[in-house]
Design brief:
The chain is an alpha+beta fold. It has one domain: Electron Transport, Fmn-binding Protein, Chain A (Pnp Oxidase, Chain A, Roll). It has helices at residues 2-17, 59-66, 95-101, 138-151, 157-160; strands at residues 22-28, 34-40, 49-55, 69-76, 81-92, 119-133, 162-167.
Length: 172
């Protein structure tokens, strides 16, 4: 039963991120500060690994070489959907996987195409995903507001939106 629930939760995460075109990838720089940058999403399916493309000599790969811990954030403010994925990142050499993920629109960023020797794949093995989705209706939100005004107590986050922390893999 727990396995089915976990699979359902993981499928919910995929459902929330599958149509994303861009995510924010956060790494830790040489001074221990967080650094974020937008990255194009390549996912066509999801098996617990997120895929991105970058250049072999990018600062993000240098940072990941020193600290593989990353966070990938997906935001759809118009739908009030937010997903924060934490995991372990690594550079992967797999030309077949690169060709599988390649789309012609990527030439904007990688003009030499999938054969470019400077092109590198970045894999993020997902350990945990936190999401906030399916916000309360206007009526539910208004009732929560009235109750808060009358009692002085805020509603729980689950009364306003669905939120969950989903485990994929344990941290090494």
């Amino acid at each position: 039963m727990e396995r089915t629930s976990r699979q359902t939760d993981q499928a919910k995460v995929w459902d929330l991120i599958k149509d994303a075109h861009t995510a924010l990838l956060m790494t830790v720089d040489e001074n221990g500060a967080l650094e974020a940058r937008p990255m194009g999403c390549l996912q066509k399916e999801f098996d617990g690994i997120l895929w991105f493309l970058t250049f072999r000599h990018s600062s993000k790969l240098r940072q990941i070489g020193k600290n593989h811990r990353v966070l990938v954030a997906y935001v759809k403010p118009d739908k009030y959907e937010y997903v924060a994925v934490s995991g372990s990142a690594s550079a992967v050499e797999d030309r077949e996987k690169l060709k599988e993920l390649w789309t012609e629109g990527l030439r904007v960023w990688f003009p030499e195409g999938p054969e470019d020797p400077e092109l590198a794949m970045l894999a993020v093995e997902v350990e945990k995903a936190d999401y906030w989705a399916e916000p309360a209706s206007l009526v539910t939100y208004a009732l929560a507001y009235v109750r808060t005004r009358l009692t002085g107590e805020s509603p729980s986050p689950d009364e306003i939106a669905e939120s969950k922390s989903v485990r994929f893999h344990e941290r090494p």
